[in-house]
Amino acid sequence: MASDTHLSGAPAGRAGAVRRLLLENGALSALVVLVVGMSLLSGDFLTTQNLLNVGVQAAVTAILAFGVTFVIVSAGIDLSVGSVAALSATVLAWTASEQGLPVWISVLLALGTGLACGLVSGALVSYGKLPPFIATLAMLSVGRGLALVISQGSPIAFPESVSGIGTTLGGWLPVPVLVMIAAGLLTALILGRTYLGRSMYAIGGNEEAARLSGLRVKRQKLAIYALSGAFAAVAGIVLASRLVSAQPQAAQGYELDAIAAVVIGGASLAGGVGKASGTLIGALILAVLRNGLNLLSVSAFWQQVVIGVVIALAVLLDTLRRRAGVTPAAAGAPGTSGPGAGGKGARAARYAVALVCVAAVVAAVTFWRSGPSGTTTTKLGMSLSTLNNPFFVQMKAGAQREAKERGIDLTVTDAQNDASQQANQLQNFTSEGRSAIIVNPVDSDAAGPATRSAGKAGIPVVAVDRAVNKADTATLVASDNVTGGRQAAKSLAEKLGGKGTVVVLQGTAGTTASRERGKGFAEGIKDYPGIEVVAKQPADFDRTKGLDVMTNLLQSHRGVDGVFAENDEMALGAIKALGARAGDSVPVVGFDGTPDGLKAVKDGSLFASVAQQPGELGRMAVENAVRAAEGKETPSMVKVPVKVVTAKNVDDFS
Amino acid sequence: MSSPETLLRIEGIRKTFPGVVALDGVDFDLRRGEVHVLLGENGAGKSTLIKVLSGVHAPDDGRVLADGKEVRIHGAQDAERLGIATIHQEFTLVPDLTVAENIFLGRQPRRYGLVDRKRMEAEAAGLLERVGVRVSPRAKVRELGIAQLQMVEIAKALSLDARVLIMDEPTAVLTSEEVEKLFSIVRTLRETGVGIVFITHHLEEIAAVGDRVTVLRDGRSVGRVPAGTPEDELVRLMVGRSIEAQYPRTRPGTGEPLLTVRGLTRDGVFHDVSFEVRAGEVVGLAGLVGAGRTEVARAVFGADPYDRGTVEVGGTRLARHDVNAALAAGIGLVPEDRKGQGLLLDASVQDNLGLVTLRSATRAGLVDRAGQRAAAGRIAEKLGVRMAGLGQQVRTLSGGNQQKVVIGKWLLARARVLILDEPTRGIDVGAKVEIYQLINELTAAGHAVLMISSDLPEVLGMSDRVLVMSQGRLAGELPADEATQDAVMALAVSTTNTATQNEEGSRGL
Questions:
Q1: Most CB atoms closer than 10 Å: which of A329, A446, A499, B69?
Q2: Are the folds of A379-477+615-636 and A481-611 the same?
C-alpha cells in the first residue's frame, strides 16, 4: 500500500525512484554522501579491493548489530554482545585447541555459549523483571570475566579449520562478507516473516497490547535475547578467525558500535521500528568512515571526533526527515501525505544531507595537512596499539621526528587496543600500497594474518615493542620486557635487603607486556627466598585503577614492604594510595620510564622505574622500515636497551 | 459585533496540513464570563482550533484578536502572556511530583534561589480549595484518581490567572457525580469573569453548563446557536443530517450462557462477583469509576490474577491468570485504554488486525503474510474502517476507526465473548452509532457482549441487562425495562453493608 500512496506527481521514472529511496532513508543517503565524498578525496577508496576491505571491516559489527536489532525492535537493549562474542570465540578455541575436542563440536559449543548467555539475559529480563540495561550490563561483565578465566588471560590459537572463515574464497571474495550477507538475509527473514519477528514489533510497539492479544511476551523475550546471543557468537567466531586467535579481550566496546549501527539504520530505541537493511547500512557507514579516515591519513585523535560527529548527524538527519512528515515506506504512509508532505520533508532532508556533506568535507580538508607532503615517494604506515598511554605517544613522537628528518611521509593510526581494528588498519595500509608498514601489535598472535597479507603484497613489515607471531617481519624493534622485569625484581629485592612482603600490580590481563614483565619479575624474585609476593592484582595499566587496587590491598596487607607495578602509571597510583609511606619506607618500582615516572623518581616517591626508550623505539622502527622499503638488509632483531632508573642516575634520562 | 466584553476573537482562520484542510475560515469569539461550547464530530477541527489558540499551531491565514488587538500566538509562552490556559484531554502532569509542584511547575516560588515549599504549598492549597477538591498539596500526583487529576489541572490553569480557559472534553473520563462537581466549578469561574471554551461530546451537558454553542463541521463553523437549542437540532448541525436513533439496539433472542462467572474475588479489589452472559445478549456493567469494573473484566480475561471463584466459557473452566486460555476459549478484551493497551500505534492497520491471529497464521515459524493481509482487508471492509490503506499507521486513524481495529482483531480471532471496556470513550456521535450497529450485528450472530461504560445513557440504551458495581461488589442487576438513570445511580452509590464481608456476598437481585 505504501508504495501506491507515494506515487505523487513528482518526477517519475528511475531518477525519481532513486531520489525517493534516498529521501525516505536518511541512513542510505548519508552512506551515499560518505562514499561519494571519500571517493573524491582519496583515489585509493573506490577500488574493488578497498571496497571488499570495507565489507570485511563492517562484518563483525554488522553481525553483532543484526542480533541487537532484534532486541532493540522489541524495545530492549543488549550491552553484552561484545563480551559474549569474545567468550564464544574463547570457548571454541579452548575446547578445540587445548581440550582436543573435534572442531565441529567446539563450534556447536561456541554457538551454544552465545545462546546460553542470551537465555540468561532474557530470563533476567522477563522472569527476573530486571531492566534490560542492567541485565545485559551484568552479562557484559560476566561474559568478559569468564573469557578471561577460561583463557587465563592469554590469547588461544584458533583452530586452522575454522580460521578459513576469516580468509577469502578463490583468493578474492572474503568469507566474513558472505557470513555478513547470510546473517543479514536471515535477519530480514526473521523480522519480516516469522512469528518471532512479528512478535518483536508487537512487543516493542506496545508490550501490554501484545500481552492482551495473547502473545506470550516472556517466552518471546527469552527467544529474542537468545537470538542476539547466538548472533554474537557468530560474530565472535568471525572475529577470531580473522585474527587466527581467540582473544579474551576482543570486541571491547563493540556493543556500542552495534547499537550505533542499529540506530543509524533508523531503528528507534523506544522499540517497534527497525529493519535489517537499515542496520547493515549503519554498520557500513561506520566501516566506510574508519576506512576512509585511514586512507585520508586523518590524525588518530581527530578520527574519533569525526566518527562521533557523523553518528550524531546521521541520526539527526533521520529525525529531521521524520519530523518533516515523510513516513518511511515500511511503516506505511498515511493517505494524507501528498506532494505537500514530500516537499517539506525533502527540504528538511536536503538541509540535513547538506550538513553531513559539509561536515565530511570540512573534516577531511582540515586534517588533510597530515596527509601527503610534497615529492617523497616513501610512504610509511604505522599502526600503534594505543595512544592512551604516554609511552606510545612518545614512541609516535620519536617516529615522526625521524620521518620528518628524512622527509618521509608517515601516517600513524591508533588501534585503540583493539586487535581487529588494527587488522583493518594494516589491511588499509596494504591496499594503499605503502612502501613499508610499522606495527606495534595489540596482540602478537592477532597481528599475524594481516602481516602475512602485507607480506604477500610485497610490503615489508617492521614490528615495534612487541613481536608478530607466525608471520615474517623485516625487523623487530623492542626492548626486552622479560629482562626488564628481572631487573625490577633485583633492584626492589636489594632495596628491601632480601626480605619482606611485596605486592604486584598487573597490567591489563592478557596483554603481552603484562605477561612478559610479570614473568621476568617472577623469575627475578625467585633468587631472593626471603621475599614473599603476598598479592597480585590487575589494575589495567591505569593510574586511577592503580590507586583503587592499592588502596584495597592495603586493607588486607597493611604491613607490605614493597610494590612492583608493571608500568609507571599504576606505580604512580600506588604511590598516591601509600601516601607518605611511599619512597623510603615502602619502595615502589615501576616500568617504562615515562616523564611522570622519572619526575617521581627524582622527588623520591618512586624508588625506581625500568626505563624503556619509547622515542628510540619509534626512531629505530622508522629507520629500519626505510631500509626495508629500499630493499636493504635489515637485522631481524634490534634491541633497544632497558635501564633501571633510580635517584642516582635519573638526571641522565630526563 | 465586537463589544468590550469580547476577550478573544478569531476571524477566518485557515490551517492546512499536508493533504488535509483542517480549518477552513473559522470564526469564533469568546466573551467575558461565558461558557462557549465548541461542538463537532471528531475530525471537524476542534482540536486544531484549540491548538491554534494555545500556540501549538500557527494559522496559515486569518486573524486572532485579544481585547480587540491583533495578536500572534507562537508558543505556550505567548498564550500564557495573553492569559489563555488549556486543559488538554491527555493530562500534562508529572506523576512523581507532588500536587503543589505540578501546579507551579516551572514557576515555583523561590527564596534565596531555593524553592520556597511552604509558600508554594500554601498557595496550592488555596487554589485547590477554590476548585473544591480535597487533596493534599503534598500528595504525589501518581496517587490521585482521574477526577482529582482533572481538578489539579484546573487549579494549575487558575494559578496562571487565566482569563480564557480552554477545556478539551473535561467530562470524558468523569462519573456523573464528578461531572456535577466540575460544572459547579465552571459556573463559579464564569461568575468571576473567566471566559471558558468547553468541548464535549455529551449533548446533555450543553444545556447544563453552556451559554452559546459554535458548531464545527469539516473545518468550517456551520452555526452559532444558544445553548438551549434542542439536541436533535445540534446533531443535525454537527453531522449535516439527523441521526435516526442514538442507541439503535435491536434485541435478538438470547441463547445458551456463554460466559459464566462465579464468586470471583480478588482480595481488596473485588469480592464475590457472579454473573453470566448469554449468546446474543449485551450485558452492561455500570458503576462509578473505581468500583472495580475494569478489574473484574481483566481478571475474567486472565490479564490479572484472582484469589477465588471460577470463570467458565461454554461450560469449560478457564485457568486462572492465563490470557491464552481465555483467548482459546473465545474471549476477547477491548481495553479501556485503547492507545495504551489495545493498539500498536506505530504499526500498520494490517499488523494490528492480525495481532491475535499471528500464531494461528504461522506455519513452521513463518507467518502467512499474504493470508493475514487478505483477512485484514476483509474485516476492515466489513467494519467500514476508514483508512488510506492497510499500510496506514494506526496512530493516524480517528478514535472511532482505531476502536474498530481493536474490535476487528478479535473478530478475526473468532472471539465469541467480547468484553468492551468503555468502547465509545472519546469517539464522536457518528462513529458511536457505527460501533453500536456493530454490537447489534455481533449479538445477532450469536456473540455475547459484556460492556463496561461510564456513559449512563449508553449503558441504558444498549444493554439487555445492567449489572451495577459498587465498591468492588455487585450491588444489583436490572433488566433493561427497569433500568433507569436513577435506579442505576442508586445502586452505584449504595454502600454495601460491612457486615456482609462473608462469602455470601451482596448480590443484589
A1: A446
A2: yes
> Quick check: B20 contacting A, CB < 8 Å?
yes
- Identify the DSSP state of B254: P
Cα gap B173→B151, rounded to integer Å: 12
Q: How far apart are CA B499 and CA A628, in angstroms?
A: 100
The domain ranges of chain A are 13-42+296-329+338-369, 58-287, 379-477+615-636, 481-611
Phi, psi angle pair for B71, to nearest 5°: -130, 160
DSSP secondary structure code for residue B211 in this structure: S
Residues B494, B499, B505, B509, Cα dihedral to 10° = -50
Coil, strand, or helix at residue B361? coil
Q: Residues A270-285: what's their mean pLDDT?
A: 92
The one-letter amino acid at B228: G
| pLDDT tens-digit map of A475-486 | 999 888 888 999
Q: Is the pLDDT of residue B508 over 60?
A: no
> Hey, what's the cell of A425?
588498519
A9–chain B Cβ distance below 8 A for any pair: no
**pLDDT band at residue B145, thresholds of 50, 70 and 90?**
confident
| CATH number of the structural domain A481-611 | 3.40.50.2300
B351 — contact with chain A (CB < 8 Å)? yes
Task: Report the residue of B294, B300, B333, B341 to disrupt the A interface, i.e. the one with the largest count of A CBs within 10 Å.
Answer: B341
Residue A1 pLDDT: 37
- How many C-beta atoms surround the C-beta of residue A9 within 10 A? 8
Judge if ipTM > 0.90: no
Q: Label residue A138 exposed, middle or buried (CB < 10 Å: 0-12, 13-18, 19+).
A: middle
Q: What are phi and psi of B3, to 5 degrees?
A: -105, 160
Contact status, residue B68 vs residue B8, Cβ threshold 8 Å: no
Tell me the pLDDT tens digit for each residue of A199-236. 999 999 999 999 998 899 999 999 999 999 999 999 99
Task: State how far the Cα of B97 lies from the Cα of B137, in Å rounded to an integer.
Answer: 10
Pairing of strands A643-645, A608-611: antiparallel
Q: Which chain B residue has the Cα nearest residue A333?
A: B392
Average pLDDT, chain A: 85
CA dihedral B93, B94, B97, B99 (to 10 degrees): 10
CA dihedral B307, B309, B315, B319 (to 10 degrees): 10
Task: Say yes or no to pLDDT of A86 above 80.
Answer: yes
Structure-derived torsion over alpha carbons of residues A539, A542, A544, A546, reported in degrees to the nearest 10:
40
Answer whether B370 touches A (CB < 8 Å). no
Give the per-residue pLDDT at A363.
61
Q: Between A128 and B47, where is the model more confident?
A: A128
Q: Is A270 on the interface with B (CB under 8 A)?
A: no
Distance (Å, whole) CA A202 – CA A191 = 11
Distance from the B214 Cα atom to the nearest Cα atom in chain A, whole angstroms: 27
CATH class, range A379-477+615-636? alpha beta
Of B18, B19, B344, the CB nearest to A209: B344
How many other C-beta atoms lie within 10 A of the C-beta of residue B191?
Answer: 9
Q: Enumerate residues 6+ apart whose C-beta is below 8 A from A593.
A: A568, A609, A610, A611, A612, A613, A643, A645, A653
Residue A132 φ/ψ region, left for φ over 0, alpha for ψ in the -120 to 50 degree band, beta for the rest: alpha
**Beta-carbon neighbour count of residue A13 at 10 Å?**
7
CA of B53 to nearest chain A CA: how many angstroms apart? 22
Does residue A470 have a pLDDT over 70? yes
Domains present along chain B, CATH in parentheses: 6-239 (3.40.50.300), 257-330+416-501 (3.40.50.300)
Chain pair A-B, CB pairs under 8 angstroms: 126
Q: What pLDDT does residue A279 have?
A: 95
What pLDDT was estimated at residue A358? 63
Is the confidence at residue A504, as pLDDT, over 80? Answer: yes
